[in-house]
Structure formats: structure tokens, C-alpha cells
From TrEMBL:
This is isochorismate synthase. It catalyses: chorismate = isochorismate. Pfam families: Chorismate_bind. It comes from the Bacteria. The keyword Isomerase applies. Belongs to the isochorismate synthase family. Residues 118-373 form the Chorismate-utilising enzyme C-terminal domain.
């Protein structure tokens, strides 16, 4: 299990406690379980920072149905934050074995997942037609998947090392086989402060175009600005009832990554005295219009109809919570679900990528954008340095 950004973060192993849950009440159940569990343990914490003491790595399903959500409390946790390092153990962990060396997964073969690129193009075209003809939807985020098989066993650490090296500003995560490097922070809580990095609106490298030129084009694109505004306002609307102050930038900035650039809004707030926990607040803001759409209920319903696939935990909240209520949740993007067991002779993994669609989206460009968003995971699998 891990959650690492720029070398800081948490890495855990072993399982001291675990909850599997699903359905509409998954966040409520997860929250109650974690609070109960944390109340019953005796904690000796000499460090007192966010992420010290017991921590539950968390990965929630995107949708109410189907989907499974999981919380895992590792037996051993190693943390680092601003030059401070710590180790947390829960109970009497089994004697540590020296870690196995990380092996290359060999050759990679790709095949269609539950929704092929052609099916995805059609789903986007259908959504655009519906937006233009019916007019009950302003934005929808549609995704598709891709299967990859590796000729040798697949070790999640191989992917994590590559992602963390190539995308240091992203949050590189691994929870129960869901591995990725997300640039999008759904919600971070540190004491009474909350923070979010909303992303929506994307441009990707094109022949003969410099980075500054691309960034300027993205900022000037009305289509991307409207995609972004829906996402930022969905987050702000759902978060503001919990806050006495909430600051949303008037204009987005550009986040530059090696595969894509995004319009970004860094939102920050101060919580009111309410007892809302991070998991309850996450329940309130998920799914933002960066992964759902506007209005949310119509968009989520149409996602199910048009994609016809199970997103599982892709685009759901992923991260960690500690026993004091601090924690970080990213949006599980640029990720893959490892389906093979570590002892399997071949690896099997399901990759995901999606795009925000508005009435003037072009289905061919959305297919190309999803390709660009699949690159980090494909290159990590192929071991491209
Ligand atoms: C849904 C994804 O990206 C979201 C986050 C950033 C930009 C997005 C966009 O421009 O469409 C998406 O809203 C994904 O990477 O699968």
C-alpha cells in the first residue's frame, strides 16, 4: 500500500484490519468502522503529525452499484513528511522478511477491455448528440478501459517506481491492487484546513507545438474552460456547507505534466466547528464534475448507460485517513487495477482513462485525449524510463 508525492508520504504492508463495503452507504459504513476501530486501540504516538499513529489506506468505488470499496490498516507503516520519518506498527507484526527484488514484467500485450476505443468514440458521440438535442445535461465524463497482459509476473512495485520517478508531482498510490499516479487531489484535511486541486480541461503534446503555446491554447479554449468551471463549481458547492471560509481561484492555472496539461484550481477552506469527518466530506463531494458531470444525478445515470462497464474503483476517492481525522484523498485517475495474483506466471491488469464531454466536444479528439491519459500507465508497464 502506498501514497507518495515528491518523496513524502506513506508506505505500508501487512493487514492489521480490513473492511470491504459497497453500495450507497459505503462512505458512512467506512467512516463508522474506522472510528470504531481507532477508538479501540491504544496509541503511542511520539511524532504527532498527520499520518502518524494508525492509518487506514482507503479506496472507494466510483458508483453505488456495482463496485467494492476497501479500507486496509497496515501492520507496518513507514512515513515521511518534511524531513521527519517514522514507523508505525500495529499489534505484533510478523518478523519482516527481506523484500523480494522488483522484477520486470516482460512483454506487454494489449486488448480491448469492457469498452473498446471504438465503443468509447460511439459513447462520446451519443452523449454529444443528447446534449445538443435534449439539453438536460451540461457535462458528462465518459471513460473506457484497456486490458494488458504481461509475459512475466507483474509486481505492483515495478509500476509504482516508474510512476513516482516520472510523475513526482502526482500522488502515486497503491491500495488493494489499484495502482496509479493521480494529478487530482479530491480532498485533504489537516486539522481544520481543507484543500483540493480540481482538474478538468486538457491538452496534450502535438507535433511542432511548444509547451508555452499549448498552455496558452488551453487557457484560451472556451470548451476546456467550461469543462473546468463545472468541475470547480461542483466541488465548491458541495464543500462550502462544511466551511466557514472557502477560497476558489477566479481563474484556473495550467498544470503541466509530461503526457498532458490540465486546467487546475487549487481550492482551500477552513472547516466550521461541525464534526464532519474527512470520509463524510468525501461522500458529499464525490463525484465532482471532473469524473461525473453536471447535473450529477443525470450524468451518473447516463455514464452507466453509455459506458456499460463497471468502473470499479477507477475515478473513486483513494488515499488515507488517520485516527485524528487527517488524511488525503485523490481521485483515482491514471491508474490500473491489477487482476493477477503476485504468484501468477503472467500479469493481467485493467487500465482506465476518461474525458469530460460538453456539447461541442469532438469524439475523435476525446479518443486521442483518453490515449494521452493512458500513457503514464502504459509506459510504467512497459518499463519506459
Ligand atoms: C477522467 C479523467 O481525467 C479528468 C481529470 C482531469 C482532466 C479531465 C478532462 O479534461 O477531461 C478529466 O475531467 C481521467 O484521467 O481518466
Amino acid at each position: 500500500m502506498s501514497w507518495v508525492r515528491d518523496g513524502d508520504g506513506l508506505v505500508g504492508w501487512g493487514c492489521a484490519a480490513r473492511l470491504d463495503t459497497s453500495g450507497t452507504e459505503r462512505f458512512v459504513e467506512a467512516d463508522a468502522w474506522w472510528q470504531d476501530w481507532a477508538e479501540q486501540v491504544e496509541v503511542h504516538d511520539e511524532v504527532g503529525l498527520p499520518g502518524t499513529g494508525p492509518v487506514a489506506f482507503t479506496s472507494m468505488a466510483f458508483a453505488e452499484e456495482p463496485g467494492r470499496s476497501v479500507l486496509v490498516v497496515p501492520e507496518v507503516l513507514v512515513g515521511q513528511r518534511d524531513g521527519v520519518r517514522w514507523v508505525t506498527t500495529v499489534g505484533e507484526p510478523a518478523a519482516a522478511r527481506p523484500p523480494e527484488p522488483v522484477a520486470h514484467p516482460g512483454m506487454v500485450r494489449y486488448s480491448d477491455g469492457q469498452l473498446s476505443a471504438t465503443g468509447y468514440r460511439q459513447a462520446v458521440a451519443d452523449a454529444v448528440r443528447r446534449m445538443r438535442e435534449v439539453g438536460d445535461l451540461d457535462k458528462i465524463v465518459l471513460a473506457h478501459d484497456l486490458l494488458a497482459c504481461t509475459s512475466d509476473p507483474l509486481d505492483g512495485r515495478f509500476l509504482l517506481n516508474n510512476l513516482a520517478a516520472r510523475y513526482p508531482s502526482c500522488w502515486t498510490f497503491s491500495v488493494d491492487g489499484l495502482v496509479g499516479a493521480t494529478p487530482e487531489l479530491l480532498l485533504e484535511r489537516t486539522g481544520q484546513l481543507v484543500r483540493s486541486r480540481v482538474l478538468a480541461g486538457t491538452i496534450w503534446p502535438r507535433e511542432g507545438r511548444g509547451a508555452d503555446e499549448l498552455a496558452a491554447e488551453l487557457l484560451a479554449s472556451g470548451k476546456d474552460r467550461s469543462e473546468h468551471d463545472y468541475a470547480a463549481s461542483s466541488l465548491a458547492t458541495c464543500l462550502s456547507p462544511f466551511c466557514t471560509e472557502l477560497t476558489v481561484p477566479e481563474e484556473p492555472s495550467v498544470l503541466r505534466l509530461r503526457n498532458v496539461m490540465h486546467l487546475a484550481s487549487d481550492v482551500s477552506g477552513v472547516l466550521s466547528g461541525s464534526q464532519a469527518t474527512l470520509l463524510r466530506m468525501t461522500d458529499a463531494v464525490h463525484p465532482t464534475a471532473a469524473v461525473g458531470g453536471t447535473p450529477t444525478p443525470q450524468a451518473v445515470k447516463l455514464i452507466h448507460e453509455l459506458e456499460g462497464m463497471d468502473r470499479d474503483r477507477y475515478a473513486g476517492p483513494v488515499g488515507w485517513v488517520d485516527a485524528r481525522g487527517n488524511g488525503e484523498f485523490g481521485v483515482a485517475l491514471r491508474c490500473a487495477q491489477i487482476q493477477s495474483a503476485p504468484e501468477d506466471r503472467e500479469g493481467r491488469v485493467r487500465l482506465f482513462a476518461g474525458c469530460g464531454i460538453v456539447a461541442d466536444s469532438d469524439p475523435d479528439l476525446e479518443v486521442a485525449e483518453a490515449e494521452a491519459k493512458l500513457l503514464p500507465m502504459r509506459e510504467a508497464l512497459e518499463g519506459i524510463a
